[in-house]
Automatic annotation (TrEMBL):
Residues 60-89 are annotated as: Disordered. SUPFAM superfamilies: H-NS histone-like proteins. It holds the Pfam family Histone_HNS. This is DNA-binding protein H-NS. The lineage of its organism: Bacteria, Pseudomonadati, Pseudomonadota, Gammaproteobacteria, Lysobacterales. Its main location: cytoplasm. Belongs to the histone-like protein H-NS family.
Length: 106
């Protein structure tokens, strides 16, 4: 099917491009689904489960546990900061007052 794009106006050309991109996406999804079915059939034919071949279904996530505090507010020892993220106001105030980071370290 050949389309003479020289005779199309701007709106028609945009519509054609949009339809072509939609069709391209559909074809890609169909191809991926067929490939997934082939792989599943091959794995099953060999007597394995998908999890045996490809591991678990979820990606392993890094643990985001709490970090030990590195700095303590000398005016209020309950206030601490791990050194990560935005500096707390008390930390900035102490630096402005002439203290050094090592003075605030735990």
């Amino acid at each position: 099917m050949a389309v003479d794009i020289k005779n199309l106006n701007h709106n028609q050309l945009n519509e054609l491009i949009s339809k072509a991109q939609t069709r391209q996406t559909e074809l890609r999804k169909e191809k991926v689904a067929k490939l997934r079915e082939k792989i599943h059939a091959m794995v099953k034919a060999e007597g394995f489960a998908m999890e045996d071949v490809f591991g678990g279904t979820r990606k392993a996530r890094r643990s985001t546990g709490t970090v030990a505090p590195k700095y303590r507010n000398p005016a209020n020892p309950e206030q601490t900061w791990s050194g990560r993220g935005k500096r707390p106001r008390w930390f900035n105030d102490a630096l402005k007052a002439g203290k050094k980071e090592k003075d605030l370290a735990i």
